[in-house]
Specification:
about 130 residues, about 50% strand, alpha+beta, signal, Lipocalin-like domain-containing protein, single chain
Length: about 130
Amino acid sequence: MKNVFKILGVFVFLFTAFSLSSCRDDDDPADNDFFAGTYKGSVSYTDSDNNISTDNGEVFVTKIASGTKYNFRFSNGIPELNGLEFQKQGDNTLVMVNSNALVYVRIDNNELKMIYTVDGKTWRANCTR
């Protein structure tokens, strides 16, 4: 009976190890039809009434049904950004359409870089996965 439990324990361990290894953080937002990932690092938001900043923030990024638009949900009470449109640049990088000095968002499977200013509101992110 002890041998049965040992063998069963080994199978449970191997199944758990295989299951955990198949959950990858290297999913590529540029190549997946559906994408959801959390980026951690420095995030901030300013407007006429708020100045929120932290080095331990999070941004949850999701690709929405259109295939080129993404939503960004921030931690620390920072308002969401929704429906930002991207184009693929290189093999694994997405850059926001119409990027300029006030609007620049770059995302790949490892990092998120953002400065987004509109209507006196500014979002910033320098995060990694």
